[in-house]
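Incident review: delayed structure delivery

Summary: a single-chain prediction request sat in the queue longer than the usual turnaround. Root cause was a stuck worker, restarted by the on-call engineer. No data loss occurred. The affected request and its eventual output are reproduced below so the record is complete for anyone auditing the incident later.

Affected input:
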Amino acid sequence: MVTKYPAAIDTVFTLKPILDGLPVTGGSVEQLREAIIAIEDELGVRPSGLYATVRGRLDSIENIVGNLQIIELDKDLGGTLEFPLVIGIRGRPVSTNTPLIGQVLVWDGLAWSPAVGPTTLPPPPVTTEVFFSCGVFTTNSNTFTRAGARTLDMTLWPPIVGISIRTVKFTADVDKTSGATSVEVRLYDVTHNITVAGTGLISTNNANTPLTATLTVGSSSGNLRNDVPTQYELQVRMNGGSADAVFLTSARLVITYA
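Output delivered after worker restart:
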């Protein structure tokens, strides 16, 4: 009978005892032979390694494993095993704020946060331009004509990013035919039915003239609104005959961080 080892441990029933006075059969010897071969195959050659016994080697491994310091995803490490993140330094949290170019980690009393260090320079200005539709317009005297419109959500541009402060300017480039005495360009808040303060820009030049005004961003009436997405119209009018024309070559909001 072939031994069941290592699929199962032999018992006194599978390896029957040999009693004195009874003949030893080939089957009983073969069972012992199969068991010895199975044990040797399982343990391999010289399982004690550099130690005197297998027990000595196992005791040494147990001692090493018992003294290992297992790293846990806690305090300084976070995320997952596949995608670990450094969330602290020496038990102090690291801020999740996105750093700007030139910033370093500074302890602010609550977390390690990106900030300008003593030997770093402030980041360069970052500018975004929001354009309105433009073209050639003929208008009657003192009558505003809709040149273009768009909805704007100023929450996409927070007041401060890092150490950079936001400024917003309304800019328009216009010229006119000689018959018109003046041209006025404004930004009209359609959502709240009011002209955005500071955007009634007037030019009397026939040649291309850049007009600009710095706007106030806020939640008050007449501000460039920062509390709700708001629809704005770019409007233009001129003082002159109906045959005169306004050339509105560019109109935009310029949002700058510096």
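Verification: The longest strand covers residues 164-176.
Action items: add queue-age alerting; document worker restart procedure.
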